[in-house]
Specification:
heterodimer; A: about 725 residues; alpha+beta; five-stranded antiparallel sheet; 18 helices; B: about 120 residues; five-stranded mixed barrel; 2 helices; about 25% helix
Chain lengths: ~725, ~120
């Protein structure tokens, strides 16, 4: 039904845009029905999730009755199909802000915008979220514990809202190309570009924080295809944002901007293809597997690429651009340079992300994948150039543009940037490339602070751009410090024995509960210059995924984060041990021991299985027969009951047994020879990571402020 | 105008060199276990971890596990020594990708990528 109504809307809008205005109302009605149906379908899925209708395959796959309300809500987008529906829902909602405008171009814009919706709808009709199971399970399979946290609730919706918003610049660009009418397109699309930058940027940063804070990957960014798939369109959108600033004034860069606007959405679709089709299955941490939608993904990719390429070539000569940029010493030139650098970075990340596909070409001997060093190698010089370009470009927005005047204005920022770079060398950032990056980053941040404070009233540039640029400088320093100056070490913590690591004294005091409790944690007491605190890092055995779940403990200081990631808890068993088959004997210390037989007679408590071993032990004249035993409880945990070898205080433990080989593991230990635990952790100090979060927030906040100042333009006719 | 082209050309040439060297240097080919044992450079292999054979080398604190080739010549296996931090979801992984180099009878991995079972589609 939704499918049909969208088709109707599409038809209506297409006819309306090609000279039959009377069809417009059909388009509008079609869109309204489409939006209503999308809302109804989303509501239905949500209803089935909240009422635990496990006959719905999707509900069964991702949720269970023990989830809290908000986690239950988040299972809506826990699977691939659900994310498509969420995306479609956002497309439907965002459309309301476009379709109300009654200007000539809007029907055409809506046509292309709904073409994007069609893409999602086809995927959803291939793989419906409402597929039924032949049986009705009593309980769902539950949500992967990795996803059971606050970030799962907030991160995916923000990213998909960002993706939905990315379709808007595409639609405006294609509409302008179709109509061959470019007057005012830049001002119309500009608020949308600001908004999509802000939202997609926020989504990316939230994902990074999630990875850092709970997943225990040790970092916030791994250049994984799924991460890159949202970074690349964000970058082209950023390039577009700066290109539009040039175009709005003088009409230059029009072709570039039309291309960037169109390609942003194309890259979103391409990213969806890369991460959802399974082509990267061997190269990503969390790519999705193929659900039979590949052919359609490729079809739409080719369709959209063909549309963009076709119209760009067809209209290329007729697009009127403004006069050429007058000189290389102008704000417009530096804006263009920034655009080139940003697009270049997007292109290089795209090449890296596509490397598993590129290396399938016959030109390469074997398929492969680029490592993280590829990305960091290109990010460093481009980051430096972007920072310097931004700083100089912003100075060129002031009234007196002569080199001399600008040099004079930039002296304070310049001096402090040199001081900053000097300080950085004291902390070990001595490599010239790092020194230059610190200089550039401090320079761009201070230049923007200074320009806002002293010149913003004259230049008329609103606070948003300054805030984002300051954030850019700050985040560069954060990236560099937390990446290059990160120190980490592994530490073995024997229970109750303090260990020194990176200037902290760590003492493992045991587990908070049982290893099978989902809120179990390893408890570590940390001493830091007389300051003492408990560090509890989650570590538990998850029966659902049949593995240990680990979450790091993070403590933030102003200058660095202390990051303790638990790796393994092991039982340490003191004394000597031996593996014996039946009727076999061996030596343990002063004792000769003989394994006679299993003792299966002793019944344990309800809910446990007790196995004993009957063992004869000889020492000189002494002969003792003992029967240590091992209890296996229903939840898989074990407990041990040693047997005493007489007055010497020696205890014999039965540690393990192998029923197929008919062997036992026995161990001789003194009093108190029960097992203790040892914990292996990775301890890291991540300097200035706070700057990464502050920078992220400023970049997003700046884009939102800029949008706020320009939002009114959405509803006014072309200017 | 000329300066614009010069700046543009310089950026493009510099970028091309940077990309080409970076790309080829950090490209790790994706090979079978047999090929990995022959290779004299950094490669990546994919396989399944033998779950109850994961252990720590007590002295160097390196993770040691056996990996079974699930893709190319199934059944062949090799021992992997990994020196980095253990990823939080190590035990959840079905198959893992190990990047590193073979030497002295074992595969020395410096980077692990975890493949989660497809039914747990990770989202981040």
């Amino acid at each position: 039904m939704t499918f049909a109504s969208c088709l109707v809307a599409l038809a209506g809008y297409s006819l309306a845009s090609f000279g039959k205005p009377s069809w417009l109302s059909l388009g509008i009605r079609g869109y309204r029905v489409f939006a209503a149906f999308t809302a109804v379908i989303s509501g239905m899925l949500l209803y089935f999730i909240l009422t635990h209708n496990f006959q719905i395959e999707y509900v069964n796959d991702y949720s269970s009755t023990d989830l809290s309300f908000f986690l239950l809500l988040s299972t809506f987008w826990a699977g691939q199909v659900g994310t498509f529906l969420l995306w479609l829902l956002f497309v439907a909602i965002v459309g309301f802000a476009i379709y109300k405008q009654r200007d000539e171009i809007t029907p055409t814009v809506m046509f292309y915008y709904l073409l994007g919706a069609m893409f999602l709808m086809v995927l959803l009709s291939v793989r419906s979220p409402f597929r039924l199971l032949p049986i009705v399970p009593v309980e769902g399979r539950g949500l992967n514990p990795l996803l059971q946290n606050f970030w799962m609730i907030i991160h995916p919706p923000v990213v998909f809202l960002g993706f939905a918003l990315m379709a808007v610049p595409f639609a405006y660009s294609m509409a302008a190309l179709t109509k061959n009418s470019y007057e005012g397109w830049a001002s119309r699309v500009f608020p949308w570009v600001l908004m999509s930058s802000a939202i997609l940027g926020l989504g990316i940063f939230l994902g990074g924080y999630w990875a850092y804070e709970t997943l225990g990957w040790g970092g916030y960014w791994a250049w994984d295809p799924v991460e890159n798939a949202s970074l690349i369109p964000w970058l082209t959108n950023l390039a577009l944002l700066h290109g539009l600033l040039v175009e709005r004034r003088k009409g230059q860069l029009r072709k570039t901007n039309l291309f960037l606007a169109a390609i942003g959405f194309l890259l979103v679709v391409y990213g969806t293809f890369l991460t959802r089709s399974g082509v990267l299955a061997d190269f990503s941490v969390h790519s999705f597997t193929d659900l039979g939608t590949n052919a359609f993904l490729v079809f739409f990719l080719i369709l959209f690429a063909g549309l963009v390429a076709g119209f760009m070539i067809y209209r290329f000569r007729s697009i009127k651009t403004g006069e050429k940029i007058e000189s290389a010493w102008s704000a417009d030139f530096f804006l263009s340079l920034g655009l080139v650098l940003t697009s270049l970075f997007a292109l290089l990340v795209l090449i890296g992300t596509s490397s598993p596909l590129i290396t399938r070409l016959p030109f390469f001997s074997s398929t492969g994948n680029v490592g993280i060093s590829y990305y960091t190698n290109i990010a460093l010089p481009i980051g430096i150039l972007m920072a310097l370009t931004t700083a100089v470009g912003m100075y060129l927005r002031t009234k007196d543009k002569s080199a001399k005047a600008i040099l004079k204005k930039s002296i304070p920022a310049f001096v402090f940037a040199i001081v900053g770079a000097g300080i950085a060398t004291l902390f070990g950032l001595t490599s010239p490339k790092y020194v230059i990056l610190v200089f550039s980053a401090v320079f761009v941040a201070l230049a923007n602070i200074q320009l806002y404070a002293m010149f913003s009233r004259k230049t008329g540039i609103r606070i948003g751009s300054y805030v984002s640029h300051i954030g850019f400088g700050i985040i560069l320093i954060g990236f560099l410090a937390s990446g290059v100056l990160n120190v980490s070490t592994k530490a073995v913590l024997m229970q109750d024995e303090p260990v020194e690591a990176l200037g902290y004294e760590l003492t493992y005091t045991g587990m908070a509960g049982d290893i099978t409790d989902s809120d179990n944690a390893v408890q570590i007491q940390v001493k830091d210059n007389g300051n003492q605190f408990g560090a509890n890092a989650k570590l538990y055995y998850d029966s659902y995924t049949r593995g240990l779940m680990r979450e790091p403990y993070v403590r933030s200081y102003l200058t660095h984060d202390l990051y303790i990631a638990p790796e393994q808890v092991e039982q340490v068993k003191p004394g000597e041990s031996l593996i014996l088959a039946r009727s076999e004997s061996g030596t343990l210390g002063e004792w000769t021991v003989l394994f006679k037989e299993y003792d299966l007679g002793g019944h344990g408590e309800p809910g446990e299985m007790k196995v004993g071993a009957v063992i004869d032990a000889y020492r000189g004249e002494d002969t003792v027969t003992v029967s240590p035993s091992l209890m296996v409880h229903d939840d898989g945990s074990r407990s041990y009951q040693p047997d005493s070898l007489g007055i010497s205080g020696a205890l014999l433990y039965l540690d393990d047994l192998n029923p197929s080989r008919r062997t036992v593991n026995i161990r001789l230990a003194g009093m108190g020879g029960g097992a203790t635990e040892r914990l292996i952790v990775e301890v890291s100090k991540k300097p200035l990571i706070l700057l990464v979060w502050i920078g992220s927030i400023l970049i997003v906040a700046g884009s939102l402020i800029a949008w706020y100042h320009r939002r009114k333009r959405v509803f006014t006719p072309a200017d | 105008m000329r300066s614009k082209w010069i700046v543009g050309a310089v950026i493009i040439v510099a970028a091309a060199i940077l990309v080409f060297t970076s790309f080829s240097r950090s490209l790790t080919p994706y090979v079978s276990f047999a090929e990995a044992k022959e290779a004299d450079k950094r490669v990546q292999v994919i396989g399944a971890v033998v779950k109850d054979q994961v252990r720590y080398d007590a002295d160097s604190l390196r993770l040691i596990f056996d990996l079974i080739d699930t893709e190319h010549d199934s059944g062949s296996s090799m021992t992997v020594i990994y020196s980095g931090a253990m990823p939080g979801n190590f035990d959840q992984a079905d198959r893992i990708v190990c990047k590193g180099q073979f030497g002295d009878g074992v595969f020395h991995a410096d980077e692990l990528l975890l493949k989660c079972p497809s039914k747990y589609e990770g989202e981040s």
